[in-house]
Design a protein that fits this description.
By secondary structure, this protein is an alpha/beta fold. It is 44% helix and 17% strand.
């Protein structure tokens, strides 16, 4: 039975021939450097001790320190963090960042924890993985169900353990604690900048461009707000409890208020829609912004969007890729589409190490310029080789990883004596 990582590696195999990567580089990229599994004992508010499963996968660091988020979710497991860490390796390479890929998480439903229990879990996780993280080793960040507050607790715990303040050890922190302006909406904003560039190149007018967004967490909400403010028609959104749609376009800010007050967009007035139905709406743009494995062989033929922008990690399976490609549906792959978060995390890390602070205009401008340039590079590779945008993105990332490994010695090469 294939694992999630096996599926992820099929994209590497598709890109390998076009990238002309050395076989030894490919061999290195097929397995992570390290996977740490830890037990995390936490005293709950009622006095009962619970022991949670925690993970940190460090996949590859040839281009720089490991980098990747920490998620709190009931489905977190070793195979998942391996796959996510592999994607982070490729994402940092496609974004041109001096980072490798990592990922971590705790198997837990954070909705069942009090604030004090969440803090104790966050700090205990850092104590468990502290021997393998640090500003020059592995720099965690927020991911599913973690946020700036969780990063504040984690950063503080790490500082206690190492005996001094070390803000560059974590990114995605609150701004007063060394976080970067622009980090909160970076993933959604990055996807929005790509939407703007792609709509411009296709001659799409915003008010005639319909968008459906599956997943209304941090990335989905910010993407929706930015798109609506720019005049695009956000016609459907959903979260884990269901969704709402309106052919004329939703009032995104009203939907966000409903999400905050009621806990779900499904409570918003309008036509009800399921997550599965949202994926099959007739729109110009579909944005999977939830979890992996949403567009599969079973439903890919029913996708009627003309463009998919993957704000989630791994929302489309390899089998679905082939179906979408055959139907002429362009997919902006996750390793590019949601790279805004790690790009601004890099900006935060640089600011922390240098003791500087950038304006919001500087952050937004640098993010936009980097993503637009990488999209152009990926599009050029796709045209050159007649491949999908996903394969082209992997080709571009793999070429950079191959270039980094060459001076390290591959093929049994040794320095001249």
């Amino acid at each position: 039975m294939s694992t999630l990582l096996d599926e992820a590696l099929t994209r590497l195999d598709l890109a390998a021939g076009f990238a002309q990567a050395h076989p030894e580089v490919l061999a290195r990229l097929r397995r992570p450097r390290r996977v740490l599994e830890v037990s995390i004992p936490v005293r709950m508010d009622d006095g009962v001790l619970r022991v949670f499963e925690g993970y940190r996968c460090q996949y590859d660091d040839v281009r720089g320190p490991f980098k990747g988020g920490v998620r709190f979710h009931p489905e977190v497991g070793a195979d998942e963090v391996r796959s996510l860490a592999f994607w982070m390796t490729m994402k940092c390479a496609i974004a041109g960042l001096p980072f490798g890929g990592a990922k971590g998480g705790v198997r837990v439903d954070p909705r069942g924890l009090s604030r004090s229990e969440l803090e104790r879990l966050s700090r205990a996780y850092v104590r468990a993985i502290s021997p393998i993280i640090g500003p020059n080793t592995d720099v965690p960040a927020p991911d599913v169900a973690t946020n700036a507050q969780v990063m504040a607790w984690m950063s503080d715990e790490y500082s206690v353990l190492c005996g001094h303040r070390s803000p560059a050890a974590f990114t995605g922190k609150p701004v007063p604690l060394g976080g970067s302006l622009g980090r909160e909406d970076a993933t959604g904003r990055g996807g929005f900048y790509l939407l703007m560039e792609l709509a411009r190149s296709r001659g799409w007018l915003p008010d005639r461009t319909r968008i459906a967004i599956q997943g209304f967490g941090n990335a989905g909400q910010h993407f929706a707000s930015l798109a609506a403010d720019a005049g695009f028609r956000v016609v459907a959104v959903s979260d884990s409890r269901g969704g709402v749609c309106c052919a004329e376009g939703l009032d995104v800010e009203q939907v966000r208020r409903t999400k905050r007050s009621e806990g779900s967009v499904a409570a918003h007035p309008g036509d009800r829609i399921s997550n599965a139905e949202l994926l099959e709406l007739e729109t110009e743009v579909l944005v999977p912004a939830a979890l992996e494995g949403q567009i599969t062989r079973a439903n890919a033929a029913s996708v009627r969007a003309r463009l998919v922008i993957e704000l989630a990690n791994g929302p489309t399976t390899p089998e679905a890729d082939r179906i979408l490609d055959g139907a002429g549906v362009d997919v902006v792959p996750d390793i590019l589409a949601n790279a805004g978060g790690v790009i601004v995390s890099y900006f935060e890390w640089v600011q922390n190490l240098s003791g500087s602070s950038w304006t919001i205009e500087e952050v937004h401008g640098r993010l936009r310029d980097r993503l637009v340039a990488e999209l152009a590079g990926v599009t050029d590779v796709a045209s050159e080789h007649g491949v999908s945008l996903r394969t082209a993105a992997y080709v571009r990332a793999l070429r950079r990883l191959n270039e980094a490994y060459q001076p390290m010695g591959v093929g049994g090469s040794r320095p001249a004596s």
